[in-house]
Design brief:
Stationary-phase Survival Protein Sure Homolog, Chain: A; 9-stranded mixed β-sheet; 23% helix
Length: 282
């Protein structure tokens, strides 16, 4: 497989800064067709619609639906000859095994893999605890993510990466304005930023989601990991995706679909008993 045509999507919306940063970097040498949601569809996972509205956009197509809608519509109708799905660049990291099914960015790459098209899900860690979503980020902030994604698109096929992995979950540190010539006015040009080291990782298995009652019939759900994203506090060892990003590295996790089945889960005997006693457990 050689990469010539790329389906670009995301879950932040077709006009998101991170998507445009990737488009500009990839379109210089590849035929890039964007098929992305009309608006923010973050954390929607692999939700899919029965039908969607599609409109032409200067970068390709805007779809009134989910990231998975975009990939299905793209690969089966709008861009059926795409060689690669690139999802992102997401504003906010997608780290840890428990985020893989939740993230619209990652889910887009997963959906592509079921079509037999490899993918790269690209996300950028934005520091700031629970307030990181309040930041308005310029294209320059995505420079590490853009550089890493472009490198993997350029080199991954020749290295045989996509013969052994269905998709790559890439998480990069933010490039703060001080790192980039021109500060906030600079474009997301990887040549203007010293590259962050790249580490091959596995998704962290740490899980700490919390829920608390407000006493009035409501429950607040939160992820405490965002308050522990420092080298001293992060609960993950070297070699995991989250640790890599905290250490200022680009994390690349090679992953596969479908989810693995466990052939010896002790169910064979139960299945036999179910067939002989009507399934009543006696």
């Amino acid at each position: 497989m050689s990469v010539e045509r790329i389906l670009l999507t995301n879950d932040d919306g077709v006009d998101a800064v991170g998507l445009r940063a990737l488009y500009d970097a990839l379109a210089a040498d590849y035929d890039v067709v964007t098929v992305a949601p009309t608006g923010d569809r973050s954390s929607i996972g692999r939700a899919i619609s029965a039908d969607v509205e599609v409109a032409e956009h200067e970068l390709g197509y805007a779809v009134d639906g989910t990231p998975v809608d975009c990939v299905v519509a793209g690969l089966d109708e709008l861009v059926p000859d795409a060689d690669l799905v690139v999802a992102g660049c997401n504003e906010g990291a997608n780290l840890g095994a428990y985020t893989l099914g939740r993230s619209g960015t990652v889910s887009a790459a997963v959906e592509g893999a079921f079509f037999g098209v490899p993918g790269i899900a690209a996300s950028m860690y934005v520091p700031g605890g629970d307030d990181w979503r309040q930041r308005e980020l310029p294209p320059a902030s995505f420079a590490h993510a853009v550089r890493a994604t472009r490198f993997l698109v350029d080199e991954g096929d020749a290295a045989g990466v996509f013969e052994r992995a269905d998709y790559l979950n890439v998480n990069a540190p933010i490039a703060e304005p001080a790192e980039v010539d021109g500060g906030r006015e600079a474009a997301a040009d990887e040549r203007r930023v010293d590259p962050a080291p790249m580490r091959v990782t596995t998704p962290s298995e740490w899980y700490g989601m919390e829920a608390s009652s407000d006493g009035n019939g409501g429950v607040a759900i939160s992820d405490p990991i965002w308050g522990r994203m420092t080298p001293a506090d992060v609960p993950d060892p070297v070699g995991t995706d989250r640790r890599a990003v905290v250490d200022g590295e680009v994390s690349v996790s090679p992953l596969s679909v479908p989810h693995a089945a466990e052939p010896d889960a002790g169910l064979d005997e139960l299945a036999k008993r179910y067939g002989t006693n009507g399934g009543n457990g006696e």
